Amino acid sequence: MNKKITFSVLFTMVLFRLQVINAQQFHNNKIVAHRGAWKKTGVPQNSIASLQAAVRLGCVGSEFDVRMTKDEVLVINHDAHHEGMDIEQTDFAELRKKPLKNGELLPTLEEYLKEGKKQKKTMLVTEIKPSPAGKERGVLLAEKVVQMVRKMKAQKWIVYISFDYDILKKVRELDKDAKLQYLNGNISASQLKADNIGGADYHFSVFQRDEQWLDEAKKEGIVTNAWTVNDTLLMDYFLGRNIDFLTTDEPEKGLQHDAYFAKTKRKLVGGDEFNYTGLPDSKKWGYDVGGNGWGNNELQYYTKEDTSNAVVRKGVLTITARPQAMENRKFTSARLVTRDKGEWTYGRIEVRAKLPKGRGTWPAIWMLGKDIKEVGWPKCGEIDIMEHVGYDPDTLVGTIHTQAYNHVKGTQKSKKIFIKNPYTEFHVYAVDWTPEKMDFLLDGVVYLSIPNEHKTVNEWPFDKPHYLLLNLAVGGNWGGAKGVDESVFPASMEVDFVRVYQ
């Protein structure tokens, strides 16, 4: 190799290394503080103090809103009004006379960027607000924001977001390298890609309603961000779906949950959000059918694909037991199973449900070993995530049954606890199952932990696939131990979601 070529290669390598060193390295988490970190800290939204708090927390981004005053000064404020004054109809000097609740003056974009540039780990997620005066002023605002960002040399920190598609197109026209995310939720991933808008920052319901959206976005190379996610169950859902970012009013909680998923590397691998109408999804659910008493002298006949017993409406699966004669039984109900459709070894299984009330009801959320037909019960293993019998109100029982530990012998491992308002409120019933132990949880709190004794499969048949069952029985050896009050029927168990993380 001659000297000229050698020098050229070395120069290129050095230049590349310098570019890598100088590249902005933001925090390695998914949490964007919505209008800064204000809720727990008590500082005003969109204040310098809320930005500083988000930076101290270590959020990957801090979001804020930009508006333009009558005399075309760029200020940070979410609402169109500040202290009763219409921002677009008021001069900056007049607005500035009314400080924020913490004594800060209404911040300008220039001041905000100056503060944001003091650190290099938190992105500045800049929402350019559409103008009430119309498109022309909105585009002018976009131009001035880009100009200010350039003046402050803050491009590396900035992600532009807006509900106005034309504003983002204008930003793209002015800055071919700008990071852009659209907020309104009505543009497909493929169209965003075609328009060179690199991100979808949509309300979480858009991604929940269409479970394929996130997958399509990844195929198209579109960055995804869900707003505004404050519920920790929703945080887990989206973190389990491997969304790129979450915008939240509670970044402290968000960072805790993000750290958990980063550590465990768990993903959402199964379940149902019930975001459709009609019969349960046949790709996910099958049925156990019949009226043979199910080994417990139960009084119901389990039907198949009958919306009077199992139906999905308004985001909820409802399983209903009815006083309806069928074959040799006085009641009908449904028993949904994931057998041959969803079977898992280890993981966290969560079901958010509201229970039926009344003597004679026996709802259950449980799992059975896939090999039950080959080895029989209880050798296959049974995990009762939630059982409740109506004659024992406000209680929950979690149990495992195995060859060594089962209710026939009276050796089952279980625990009964009090549960508040199970008939009027949804609760999350869960099991966290690892090779070492089985934790049973109510609303995220462990109430029973069963260790693997590492003896034989007679004690621990849980190192193999199990499938999930949801059902509502009537009467039976346990559920009907104190009789059946027929006046409480029809009775229903409602299920908001089923989620399986591994």
Give the key terms.
single chain, 502 residues, alpha/beta, TIM Barrel, Jelly Rolls, 8-stranded parallel β-barrel, 8-stranded antiparallel β-sheet, 13 helices, 29 strands, elongated
Give me the number of helical elements: 13
C-alpha Rg, in Å?
A: 28 Å
* Count of individual domains: 2
Structural class: alpha/beta
What do we call the CATH homologous superfamily of the largest domain? Phosphatidylinositol (PI) phosphodiesterase
CATH class category label of the largest domain:
Alpha Beta
Task: Summarize the main sheet.
Answer: 8 strands, parallel, barrel
Query: Which strand-content bin applies to the residues?
Result: 25-35%
Q: Would you tell me which CATH topology of the largest domain applies?
A: TIM Barrel
User: Kindly, what is the distance between the CA atoms of the first and last residues, rounded to a whole number of angstroms?
Assistant: 52 Å
Strand order of the largest sheet: 1-2-6-7-8-9-10-11
**Would you identify the CATH architecture of the largest domain?**
Alpha-Beta Barrel
Low-pLDDT ranges: 3-22
Number of strands: 29
Q: What general outline do the C-alpha atoms trace?
A: elongated
Helix content: 10-25%
Mean pLDDT over all positions = 95
